[in-house]
Structure formats: C-alpha cells, structure tokens
# Entry
Amino acid sequence: MAAYAELRCKSNFSFLRGASHPEELVARAAELGLSALAVTDVDGLHGAVRAHAEARRTALPVLVGAEITCSDLGISGDRARPLVLLARDRDGYANLCRILTSVHCGGPLLGDHAAPERPDVAAIPFRTVAEGARGLFALYPSADGEEIARVRDAFGRRLALAVSRHRVAGEEVAIAAARTVGRRLAIPVVVTNDVHTADRRRQPLQDVLTCIRLGTTVDRAGRRLFSNAERTLKGPEEMAQLWRDFPEGLEASVEIASQCRFRLDEIRGEHPLPPIVASPREIAPSSIGSTAPDTGGVAKTGIALLRDLVEDGARWRWKGEPPESVRLQIARELDLVEQLGYASYFLTVWDIVRFARSRGILCQGRGSAANSVLCYCLGITSIDPVRMGLLFERFISVERGEPPDIDVDFEHERREEVIQYVYERYGRAHAGLVCEVISYRARSAIRDVGKALGLSLGQVDRLAKLIGAYEDVAEVTPELLAQAGLDGAASPVVRQTLLLSNELQRFPRHISTHVGGFIITSRPLCETVPLEPAAMPGRTIVQWDKDDIAEMGLLKVDLLGLGMLSALSRSLRLLAAHRPAPRAHHATVQRDATAHRDATVQRDAAAHRDATVQRAATALGDAMWPDSLAAIPAEDPEVYAMISRADTIGVFQIESRAQMSLLPRLRPRCFYDLVISVAIIRPGPIQGGMIHPFLRRRDGLEPVKYPYEPLRAVLEKTLGVPLFQEQAMRLAIVAAGFTPGEADELRRVMTHKRSHERMESMRSRLVAGMAQRGISAAQSDEIFRQLLGFAGYGFPESHAASFALLVYASAWIKRYHPAVFASALLDSQPMGFYAPHTIVEDAKRHGVEVRGVDVQHSSWESTLEGAEVGQAVAPAEAPALRLGLAIVKGLPRAAGEAVVQARQDGPFTSTADLAHRAGLSRAVLARLAEAGALRSIAAERHEALWGALSVTGASAQEDLFAGRELPEPQVKLPVTTAAEEVVRDYATTGLSDRAHPMAMIRPALASRRIRSARELARLPDGARVDVAGLVIIRQRPQTASGIVFVSLEDETGIANLVVMPDVYEKYRVFVRGTSFLVARGRVERNGAVVNVRVSEVEPLRPARDLSIPARDFR
Amino acid sequence: MQLELSAIGAGEARARQVEREAAPRRAASPRRVLAIQVPDVSLQRIQRARRAAAETVAAERRDGRERPVAIAREGRIVACEPLARSMGVRCGDSTVQATASCAQLEVILQDDVADRALLVGLAEALMSLSPVVELALPDTLLVDASAAAVVTNRAGTEGEALLARRAVDVAADMGLHARVAVATGRGPARALARHGAGDRPIPSAETRAALAKLPLAALELPAAMAERIAGLGLRDVGALAALPAETLAHRFGPAGLAAARLASGDDPSPLVPYVPEALPLEELDLEAPVETAEPLLFGLKRVCDRLAARLAGRGVGTCRLVLRLRLDPRGEVEVPVALASPSASTSRWMLVLRERLATVRLDAPVRGVVLTVGEVAAASAEQLALDESPQQLAAVDAILARLAARLGDGSGFVAEPVDRHRPEAAYRAVAFRARRPSRSAAPVAGVAGAVTVAGAAPVEDAAPVAGAAPVEGAATAPSASYRPTRLLSRPRPLIAEGEGGRLTALRLDGHAHRILDLSPPERLSGEWWANPYDREYRRVEVETLGSCWVYRDASDGRFWLHGFFD
# Structure
C-alpha cells in the first residue's frame, strides 16, 4: 500500500495562483487517502486557518507552511529562488511567521517599529531566512549544488530537495540532477507535486487566474500558462505509479510530514494580553466615575484592578451601592472572568475607551458586550443589562470555550486617533488590525474572467453593470445577456465566461483592512500570525480575518467607526455653540435633566405626551440644549410621535424604507419599542415570519399565546414572539433544558452560514428535551420553527438596545433641532441611507431655511446662522443652515480653509480680492463660481464665472498681476434661469438650496396627470396613478424574493415604489440605471403606509441632463 | 520721393499706398472652401454595402423583417437608422438601453479604418473638381473652391453653388448622401456643412451672420474650453462672437483668441491637401530592342537606381518588385520579383533580378522595361559589423532568390518562435531577416534566422520569445533538444502495436516499424477556450524511421507521428 504526503500545495489564498479553496484541497486530500497535506501558500498563511478547520473535520494531518522567494539564492542570472518552509514545532511556526512578516514589511516587526511600508518586491534575502531557520523544515526545488550547499548550511538535516514530475519537457534531467546532488551531499530528495488545484477540472480556472494576475488574455498568455493539468492533487497509488523509479521520494514525503508535528491547535486560545497597570489617579476618568476607588495607594493590574474598577463603576452607575441583584451579577461575572483569565481583556478595552473619552471622542459598546454588567460598570456600554434582563451567557460562557468579543463604536472620523493610540500603547510588535479577505462577487468575477477570455471592456462592463452588486452569476439569464448585447446561447466565450465566473465567485482576490478588528498580544504578534502593511499608511494588518481569529480563539477588540456617533458629536458641539445663554449652573442643570429623564422613564409616556413637550420646551431650558448623549431628555412623546409618522430620514437605524414602512404600524411609545424596532427588521425575524404576528398581537388583532406556558417569562415582553437571540437561547434553556452554554452553542449554530443543516442535527436534541417537559409534538414543532427562523440573522437584544439609544438621541435632535441635525449629517458624510440632497430636502420640509454655499459666509463645514444672513443665531430664533464649502465637488480642503482664514480679515470686496487674499488659483475660483459660491460677490452665476476666469491666478506669486482684475470691456452674458441654477447646483455640489429638480418640471408633469408624492398620500387604495421623481434609493433585499423597492423623491416628499420581479426583469435597464423615473401602477395603502405597486416604468426624458446617482442596497 | 509725388499726384499715391497695403491682406485672406459632410458615415457605409449585397441577390426581400441598424462606439449609440429611432433608440443611449428599446436592433461597432477608407475614396473622386482636398475626419472633406469659376465656368456664388451640386452628385454616385457648404475658411465651411442649412454658398461678408445661428458645438472647440463657455450660459456661436476677442484671449489664451476669430468667421488656416498614396514606378525605353540579358540588365540597373533612390528618400524599402518587359513590336511579360527582406539597395535587387531573368524565356526582343514597387515596407538602415559587408548580405539574398526561383515563391521562410504550447502553433512563417550570429554563444539549431523550406520540415524552436520569459510557477520552455528538427505540417496517423501493455511497434502507411526505445512522456494540453487538445508526446526510436516524435491523442487514444529528430 503506497503512502504519500503532499508537501507543496498552493490554495487560492496564494492569490490568483491556486485554483482551489483550502477546504477543497484538504477534503480532496482526505478523500484520496494522503498521509498528510501541507498548505504552502505563497508568502502567507492567509488560508491556513481554513485548512486547519477543515482538517479538524476530516482528521487529515495538515502541516503549516508557506512558499517564499529568496532574492539572492540563485548563483547567476535570475537569482530569485522559491523555497518551501514547513513548521516543525511552535518555535518553527514563530519563525515562519517572522519570515513572512519580513517578506511583507521588510523586517520581522519585533521591536518598536514605525509603520512599515510595503517593499517593492515580495522577496527576502536568504540571510534573513537562515537567521530564522530554527524549527523549520525546508524544501528546495533545485538541483544546483552550490545553492543547495547554502541552504544546507542554514537548515542542516532539516532540508530536502523537492522534485516534481509534471510531464513537461526536460524535467527528467532536473530530477536526475537533484537525485545525484542529493546522494552526493547526503540530502534526502522528496517528491512533491507543486499542487495548484484539487481537481484537474479546475485547470481552465487556473489558466484564467494566471491571466488575471498577469493582465493578459488566454490566447496571449502562451507558455505563461501551464502546459497541462498535472499540478493537481494525486493519490498515493497514482503517485506511486508515476514514481515507480523512485519510491524513496514518496517515503521521504511521509517521513518529513511526520517530523513536522506543529498544528495550529497549538496556538488556539493563546491570548495573553499585555498587562494594564493603573495607579489610583489613573483609574477613574472623570467621564466614567466621579471618585477613585480605594486601591491602597499602589498601582494594580489584572483581576484586582478589574474588581476595583467595576466596584467604582457600579457606584457611579447606580449612584451609590448597587441593588442586590446587580451585586450578585457582578460577582458572578467577575468570578467567571477570573476563572477564564479574561481580566486583561476587559482592562484593555477599558483602557481604550478611557483614552477615547479623554479626547472627547464619542464611543459606545455594541453587540453582546452590552449583556455584561461589567462592561456597563466600566463605561464600555450604556445599557443596564440587569434592568433589561439581558443574558450574560450570550457574551461569555464556559462551554463555548471562546473568548468574548467586545465591539466598541467610535466617531468614524476620529477612530484613527484611537487606532494609533493602540499602536502607540502596545507597539506594532504586539498590535495589528485584522484583515478582511476581499473575494470575488458576481460582477467582479465577470469583469475579470471576461477580460481574461478576451471580451471587450465594453462587453464585460455592460454585462457586469446589468448584474446587481450582490446578485449571483447563476442568476444571469439569456435575456440579460441579450440586453448586454451578448449572445449567450450561441457564443462559447460568453458561456465560458459565465461558467468560470461562477467558479470564481467567492475566491479571495486580495486582503484589505477590516473595519476595526484589533488583535493585541503580549508576545510579539508576528510570532502568532504574519503581519503586512495595510494599504493605508500607518497601519499594519494580520493575515487572518475575523473568522480565522475566532476559529483560533484569539482575543479581538473591534474598534468600529460609526458615522452616527460623528453626527451626534457634531450635533452636541453645535448645540453647545448655539446655546441661548451661558450655562451658569451646569451641575444643577445636568442633575435636573437626569432627574427629568429618570422621572419620564417611570411615567406612562402616552398619558403625558403634550404636557411633557411643553415642559421640555419651557421649564427645562438647558435640557433642550444637552451637552452629552446622557443629557438628552428621555422618553419624549413628541419624539415618538415623529418616529411613528415615519418622519425618520437621517435617524439612526430606522430610516430605511422597510423601517419607515414598519414605524406607522409599530407606533413606538417607549424606549423598548425602539429596541424592538431596531431588531425586528432583520433577516432572522423576517424569514421566521415573526413580524406580522407581533404587529397583530400588539394591535390586539390576535391573542398573545405561548407554545409552552413556562416560556411566558421569556417571551412576554415581545408578546410571545421571539425577536432576539437571547430569547432564542432562553427558549432552549426553558423548553428543552439546555444549559446557558449549550444555548449559546445553539445560537452560534443558528447564525452559522450553513446553519440550516446543523440546525436539523440539533433538532432531535431539542425535541427530546421538550418532550421531557411534556411539550406536545405540535408545540415543539412550532418552537423549532421559530428557532429556525433565526438561522438567517437576528440581533441580540443587548445590541439592539445599544443602538436604540442612538436611535432615540438622533431622533430627539431631529425633532427639536432639525437644522443642527441636518448640518451634522451633512458634515459626517458618507453615512446613512440618504444622499446629502435628500437630507437637505428633508430639512427644508421641516422648516429649515437652507442657505447656499458662499465664500462670504460658509465655513469648510456647514454652519448655523440667524435670520440675518451671516449673523449668529439669536435666542428663540430658528437657525438657518448654511452649507459648507466642503460640498463643492473637487474643491481642495486647503483652498476652502484658506478662504475661511482670509475672511477673518474682513469680507471680500471682489473676486480678485478673494483670489489675492486666499491665494486661490483660477481653477479654484472657477470651481467656486460654478458652484454658486461667489453669490455674494457676483450675484449672477455666469458673471461670477466670467469674473473668476479673468483673475490671474494668485499661485504665481511673482506675477505682477497676480490676483488682479485687469480693465477690459464690459460684456453682457445670458442671465441664468432658475432651472439652470438648479442643474448647476446639482452638478457642482450634488444638491441645491434653491429648488428640487422636480419642481422645475412640475407643470409639464401636471399636464400629464403625474402626481406628486404628497398627492399620492391622499389617493385611495387601488387607485391607478402615475408618479415621477428622482431615484434616491434602490433596494433588492435577499429576503424579498426578488422584489425591488425604489424610492422616488420630488419636491413634496418621497414616493415608495414596489417593483415585482416580472416588472423588474422587463424594465431592468430603467429601474437600475436611470436617475429620474416615471412609474405607473396602483396605490397600495396599509394604514398610513402608502406604496405604489408598479406595472410600467419609463425614464423621465425632460430630466436627462441631470445624472444623480442613487444609493443601491442589497 | 517728392519728385514722384509731384509727378503722379498725391491722390494717386494714396490710392497706390492703399492698394499696396491691401495687397498683402488679399494674399492672406482665407480661401473659399467647400465642405462636404457625410452624415453618419459609418451607417451610410454599412447601408451602402447592404444595398450592394442586396442588388446581387435579386431574391432578397426586405418585407418588413429587416433589423434596424445602429452604430455604437464605446458602448454608446452614435448613429442609428430612422426605423431604430422610431422604436425609441436615441444617439447617446447606451447599447443596453438601445437594445432594451429595440430588441431586434443590430448594433455594429464603429470602424474608424473603414470609415476613413470611404472618405479617402470620396476625396479621390472629388479631386476631379479641385486638386486640393483635405480629409477632415471623422466625416468631412474640405475642397478648395477658389477656382470654382474656372471649373464651372460660372462666376461668384453661382459657380460655387454649381461646384457644390457637383460635389453632392459625386458623393451620390458613390452611394453616399452628403451635406455641403461653401464659405470662407476651413472652420466656417465645416461648421456650416455640419450644422447649417447648407442650401447656398455663403459670401465672405455673410459668414459671420450665418455662423451666428449655429450651436457652439459647431466650432468644435477644445472640450475644456467648450465646457467653460457653456458654463457662461453661451449657447450659440453668435453669443460667443459678441464677446470682445481680447476678453476671451485674456481668459483662455491663444485658444480663446482663435475661438473668437472662428466665431467671427475668420479662419486663415490653410487646407492640408490629401496626397494619394502611390507606389512609385520607373520605366526605360531602350534605344534598340535587345535580345540578350546583359544589355537588358545594364538598362535595368539605371531603372533600379532611380527607383531605389525614391524609396530611400521616403525611408522605406520593398520586398516585392514587379518587372514588366515590353516586347517588340508588341506584347508584355510581367515578372514578379520577391525579395527575402525589405531593401532599397540596387545591388541586392540586381542579384535577384539577374536570377529571375535567367529563368524567363521570351518570344521577342525587349524594347523597354517598367519597374514597379509592388509593396513598400519599413527598411531601416543597419550598422554593419567590421567583418561584414553588403556583399555578404546580398549573397544570402541571392541564395534565397535561387531557392525561390527553383522551388517557387513562398517556398522559403523563417520559422519564428511563437509563445504557444501547441507544437504546430509554436512558430510562424516570417520573412527572412539576416541576423548576425551571436558572438557570445554558439549557434543553436533552430534559432530564428534559419531558413525553412515549406513542404519539408520547418525548424521549430521553443525558446521563449524575447520579453515574454516564462514567469515563476508557469511552464518553463523546453529547449530545442526536446523538439524535433523536422515537424510535419500535418501529423500522420500511426497504428500502435504492443505486447503486455508495452508498445512494441508502430505501423505507418501499412508498414510496421519496431520500437527500439521510448522516452518519458511529455503531456501538452490546453486551449480549452478555442480548440482544446490533450496529447502525450514521446520521443520514439523506431527501427528504419529513426528518432520520431509521436503523440497519443488523449481524446480518442489514437497515435500520430508529428516529427523527426534528424
């Protein structure tokens, strides 16, 4: 019986080299009966964890290794040579990671390094490899005696010469030479197959990948493609047949594999973090606690420090001693944290949050961390989990055997400060960002495969554009191909493009930086996982993504950027800047506001709605100008009334079309309703069919019932319908007798990508548990169905609650300070669902006067002005929104800030004066003029541009005429019409303070009996209607069975279209690609929610000059 | 001077002075130009071709089932038939939008080369009206109309109008619809032809007024400047012409000044005449008919000298000459002469001509010769090495010429390596270029430069093409020793015979040949995207046949003989 171990194998994580996923290679190797498989990707361990995970399933020994290129190993000519390195033990693995880090960063990043830069060539001097040879086994695929001698000097007996038989000309000579040299130098010769595919059938894809990498086409690639498909995984028998003349080579492969005993399991759970040490003075930042804990006057660390911090935080949170239930929960959590050794993890996050708060950076924990009272006490999260009845095991459980995951949101514009703090605090040797693997999707796959097969750029572009961002290649129909001008039925190249694109989907393309996942270790990070410089200067990333990190049980902190926190921070700053009067008694007011909030929480909001609003507006005074999120008056009925009207454009999380359709039916009345609102529009509850039962029960249209009475305690607050992950877990605990840890395992299965199959496997366990409790088969079926619904995706309640805080805060600001809100949103772009023009139109509908960008009044960002142009806001005056220079497309920030700076010396008297004092070039002046930003200097837009073009650029300082207007004849230019003004506004700033484009053509629309969005709201159910507008949103949610939701904006509001799949296919080109649409259909009215079910679509021709991109979502 | 003044009088002097001053202006005044525009030239070209095809097929019926045609460039429709327009297709639509509007629309990509060829044809036809015709791509021709009166025998605008009609007729005779305008200067004429009414010649004094109504696009200003001017709200040429020229010059520099002048109908730029490409010829009438080669070659040498000088002056050479021998008293014999490499050297031509003439048998004496260049080709001058001489190079030509004379034209070529795995596609036949042997390396069999004679066995070389060295991880190039010295132009079928799973003999043309030795296999497969193949090659030592290159086709298991290792 032959035995063979494949020691040289590239997966698709060699990026455009290998043509099989690591999982496929491992599964195929196990199927072929290989003794072991070494996944040796080029320059990285990107696919190692996936291979390892699959290996655990198949029990195949998977060796960890990589193939590098040594820049100076060759003796003559092209000196770069490949070298395969395999980790024999933990030391060898550490050295492998260091070497791979050096390949990408130019050094191993062991000390205090500045941010590394990516070297030009991904090759490494052999000297560096030799220095880290300990614990590594090297395979050298060469027969040059001199080179081999150098490698042997470094690796000694841990070296073998690798030979391959791919049936190519000349290889027998090389094999014979290697065997001769091996005999002469007493170095074993091992057989490998330099595998690139798990199956020969992947050879076409392999060729295409080569072409993509080399930027050529298959018919031009020539001999740069492999000459055959022999670089594929082969079983022991086939290899034995192939190497009948050299069985020792196969035996050597098995022997080497047995020597390389390192498995990634050895680093699983290696998560010691650098210790956080804090002195008493440092421990209590003013923003979190008011008094420092008693630490005995000495610096503390570890669990002792954590206990002190939590104790102090609890007193701060509960304004004294916490209730007994809280103390018990704190003790339980602390004990568990101590048992699992996670104290340093909590301290690390606490330290980061402390830093952010010290810099005035808004931050808030999200996700399952909000289930932990420790996080609440440490100021990481803002939700009291005890009061909310949240399940701690969703966060940490012994059974799970995985570290917790704390996600913290920061203002997205200031997150970089936090990231750099982490690098500075722990050093680049110990901290790195998690990578994100960028994989092929349908469009990118079609583009690259089409180009590789020789389709024209126009053809692939047309085809790719017809496919939605998240659609699958398998969804491409002959009709779609015909629309792209391609003949899919007759053209082989089109068929091949589709087939290969389908295979290429989900292949990794390259790695990028994850949105914020940080991994921090006490031992050098580059001994755990290789590092690379990120594309963004100043950042380093590890070669594993978040799933890999989770698989390896490593601790990760997610430092996420959240646009809404930036907007809220801006809002608070604007409120502080425009307070009617200086705050004399801050502490008193703060206390009053807090007291009011607490009192309001206690009251039945609905009973006191109007009275509370009046009080808020008059008696509170300062409370209407909060200086922190905590100071925002809570449970304001007016805010809920606004939300219930679905007047939520710009409001965090509840501004989507689906949310806006839900809100009038849900009619939120308290904070918990917002928590439900955030959680309910998720794939899990939608696919589980839980929305309508919940709404019907809430409206009293159907009775609240429980499949099993003891579940009342679990499901009562959501009227018997599970909406949160914690409820699903508790349901398993109560109904089937699961332990909390087992329930969390169930939750993980539910959210796993292939959870449906694994859920079925857990069904018997659940059913048995429920049967033991006397639950009938029908009832257990219903419970299981509800659980199965979560297999899609659901929110944890803690996460929804954290987000609901921001929902309320943003809604409150929109309700009472719409100008502030719009200003903050505009300056925090990109964020949210809507483009700036929609935000501005919404602000106008809320009575905000929007003033255009103007060099005499605008700052870089938007600002608030009083009734008088350019004047400060007076008390009791509704502020106007002055747009900032930042919205002028293509205007450099430096130029905009120079304008603001120069204006401090007085208003500009002319365009030339502006150019001279701000040092603006003619091009910048022209840009400002075209955007209408010179309106205070030259009222007429054409004249402004004419004048701007006449000014000699001030950039040439030595020019005697720089910044001067020279005398010249007067000219008469055409006057800009109102419609032209709007078109130019949109073209240069993306919005208009003057009018909506639809208003310009309203008379023409009216003559065609096309209704406005406002008129639509008054039409009866079933009425035939034509509506028109600017497409602002297109959505095609996966949960909607192909239905496309389109939002049309006009000057009166937003019309919601429902485009069924058949209509979409018929009018796909217009629905997907046109800025202005006319839609014909019937009104569908469901309470206050009005949609148009579309039957026909046509582009709105009169608006062809304007092209305003919509926001498209999955 | 005073004397002259007194003699002719001050008034006359002033008149002369005015005349002198006016003279240069008249001389510099722009020409009258006839612009003839072929709208939608691509579309017209295709429609013309289809009409011609339809005429040749009398049975063709276009009974309403015809597909409307549109021309696309970079994914956008640039022209379409009225039928397509009636179905909603618009210029500027993306092709996707257009095909969505009109599913049966036939979208044809714009072919600039073919369009230019069409215009060149029209230009040559228009030369019957004027010797100066300019190609103003993409769709216009500019004809010098200054001599309209001479051509038409009518004066003034009447003559120009007649000229314009004739131009339109010329285009119509070529199956093209055209628009014309006659105006002063290239730019105005072109603008009026493309955008104006095009119904009558525009006198110089009226050019500005005629232009004023046109859209700004008619001036074809640089894109950035056009965008800026549009940003000023100016929509037509008249609005631009109303602006003082100096203000435009101040804002846009020389381009602004030029735009101002053009808008005012002032375009002094000269026409750039189209010069038809012609292959030069030289001829010689002999003083007396000759019957032997020597005097003929003597005269031919003079003809070659003149022709070679003309080519050399253009910086080109030729690899094909056509010699026509005029016989006495009548008759003509044409002798095509192929050269091994492009050349403008008389000595090298003469060697080949001598060789060719030696094979020609004539029925009558020769009274004259005409030597024509059959095809021009780049022939860069080469620096000779110290140990080389033109005679050496010419000697190679002579050998090639002899081979061609004996074996026929096209029988000799050089097999240049092509970067392909498929053996029969791994070379291409190219014209011979003499190469100096490498001084650092010994000559390798099969390098480019060796001659292959068709019908025998082309030397195949699999060395990588320069600049296309195999990359890391890809296949390495097999050296010449792994490829046969003779590759059969068509593989020959073999029948394999074996015992106990071993190949023992190959049967070729009914004769069995014992196998003496087999090399390890080389597997070549690929080109799945076009013409897939999968073969297992072996070098086989065959009794009586020698060392053969044999493959087994993996698709059907059949064996083929593909070459010999001589």
